Amino acid sequence: MLYSCKLKSVCNLPVIYNKKINTTGTSNTDVPLAVPGMYQLDITLRRGQSLAARDRGGTSDPYVKFKIGGKEVFRSKIIHKSLNPVWEEKACLLVEHLKEPLYIKVFDYDFGLQDDFMGSAFLDLTQLELNRPTDVTVTLKDPHYPDHDLGIILLSVVLTPKEGEHRDVFQTQSLRLSDIHRKPHLWRGIVSITLIEGRDLKAMDSNGLSDPYVKFRLGHQKYKSKIMPKTLNPQWREQFDFHLYEERGGIIDITAWDKDAGKRDDFIGRCQIDLSALSREQTHKLELQLEEGEGHLVLLVTLTASATVSISDLSINSLEDPKEREEILKRYSPLRIFHNLKDVGFLQVKVIRAEGLMAADVTGKSDPFCVVELNNDRLLTHTVYKNLNPEWNKVFTFNIKDIHSVLEVTVYDEDRDRSADFLGKVAIPLLSIQNGEQKAYVLKNKQLTGPTKGVIYLEIDVIFNAVKASLRTLIPKEQKYIEEENRLSKQLLLRNFIRMKRCVMVLVNAAYYINSCFDWDSPARSLAAFVLFLFVVWNFELYMIPMVLLLLLTWNYFLIISGKDNRQRDTVVEDMLEDEEEEDDKDDKDSEKKGFINKIYAIQEVCISVQNILDEVASFGERIKNTFNWTIPFLSWLAIVALCAFTVILYFIPLRYIVLVWGINKFTKKLRSPYAIDNNELLDFLSRVPSDVQVVQYQELKPDPSHSPCKRKKNNLG
């Protein structure tokens, strides 16, 4: 049995490199180990040297675990972006059996729960001298690749005998430590940050200007602003939220950079925000001086308490309690439209069980756990060990800030020595959820394009205020902080090119059709077009533009309800999506062999930019099409309401008055609200409409009867 505690004090013991432990003299090997005794092991985790790089930037975010007897007894803090981390942390461990060695493991921290293994080592406690400080250098190795050099860890250790009277004290402290480890994924508040502007930044380019952007970091949470080209006084006007995990607050690290194409970005300066010094429920305007550089950053920071975000057992269900359900329904009733516009709705997710999962371990089993994500909110279940049909029976609740968000549920296999293995994933748009219905969702691959092994049983409830949801549709969409880095893919580039070509061809075909009317290729068609042209031009009024769009939406709606919908599934996009995962694997293997694209960084960056521009243009055209195709009925109805309003306004109000109001609003906006975030309501609306790629990804797959869980169980028994 063992107990552990973490002490704040750090001993100033000298570090001796490559010193071997003396196994003679007063070594504890003379102690009869068969008789249980109580020993205190004081460890000072000094630093690491030449650790393995696990991130794409050639660095790692290392932390260290200490284990004895298979139990984790200490975990260090994370040192970001370093291969030579300095911890200087001290831990005291109380152990009874010295036969159990101290197991030291180093990991690279990744917020996506895919912590990478960086090496491990054993420390034989029987070789330590009692009551004598010893400096130890341990060499990290990977059992699967023993020839790889993974660096070293420097420790200072002291082993002393202890009496039994200290047992209760260490047991209490051990429980506190375990409580800390159980709660790191539940946040206690929200930090809302608005990046307003920069003033008098340092010129980093030869033209006397810079292309600045700003990076924010709070713990494992990161945010990167957009790039403002050729300016020393950038106006960002960006808003984002961080989760606050500690009651005391935390430190937000801020760095400003100058973007340079084809080479490493230039550092402009840094600053910090101490959240513990800010009062809650109040907006603070901060003008921060950049250290190690020049200029200021202007920000607005607000600390608010976290609302209903929780994890509980299935027996504790908010919506099954009549009082709590009534309170939730009242909070999102139509009468409370203007009460806290950011609180759009309430989401409850019951993660019940999974069946027929993929076997990720050599034993033919898996250690599955489940991650539930809604935008930047992320919660996880416990791990069910050695099971392909786990039962979690957990209830997750979230606040909905955007009804057009997508709920992502991912199943991983826990691996103690390596990063978690992906087992399957589903993405469920909130507007497609049927309340209170327990459904079996077929797990998909990482690209959400095809099925993988297993199903997961979920029961989801969504309660929201439709008016608040409509208003929030017209503001910028929340960006995910943790996203995969863009990389060049031949298949993705080709797919985006074909998608954009199809959008352009719609316009080209329309132009050919109109030109054919002028050429009288079909006399009847040309005559009808000529009469329509005369009628429309003679009677044209501005209000007819939104009215025509309104008629188009209405026509498509009646086609759908009458069963004459001629919409066809985009098989081209779907087929290319299914091939993308295989093509990406080929790209990875080719890059390992050749590494040609990575060496020519500038060309790669240009190609990625072209790839992304093609995606944006194609997605824009597809979103317009899907708005009129009623792909998301909520958004199509919202478009109908807006077009009706524009038609009435343009019919009754002269155009000059409308332009006058628009101009006055534009000119006085900065005076009325200096820190308002600029946005385009039409583009914000279209950002909520899924592209054809997203339609395929969010499509629910039907379970295959030939691969049902019951048949798999019978086959396993046989």
Automatic annotation (TrEMBL):
Annotated Gene Ontology cellular component terms: endoplasmic reticulum membrane; recycling endosome; synaptic vesicle membrane
Annotated C2 domain residues: 20-138, 171-288, 322-443
Localisation: Cytoplasmic vesicle, Secretory vesicle, Synaptic vesicle membrane; Endoplasmic reticulum membrane; Recycling endosome
Recorded topology in the membrane: Multi-pass membrane protein
UniProt keyword annotation of DNA-binding present: no
GO molecular function: calcium ion binding
Record-linked SUPFAM superfamilies: C2 domain (Calcium/lipid-binding domain, CaLB) (SSF49562)
Key words of the record: Calcium, Cytoplasmic vesicle, Endoplasmic reticulum, Endosome, Membrane, Metal-binding, Repeat, Synapse, Transmembrane, Transmembrane helix
Transmembrane segments: 527-560, 634-662
One GO process term, biological-process aspect: regulation of neurotransmitter secretion
Similarity comment: family membership: Belongs to the MCTP family.
Name assigned to this protein: Multiple C2 and transmembrane domain-containing protein 1
Highest classification ranks of the organism: Eukaryota, Metazoa, Chordata, Craniata, Vertebrata
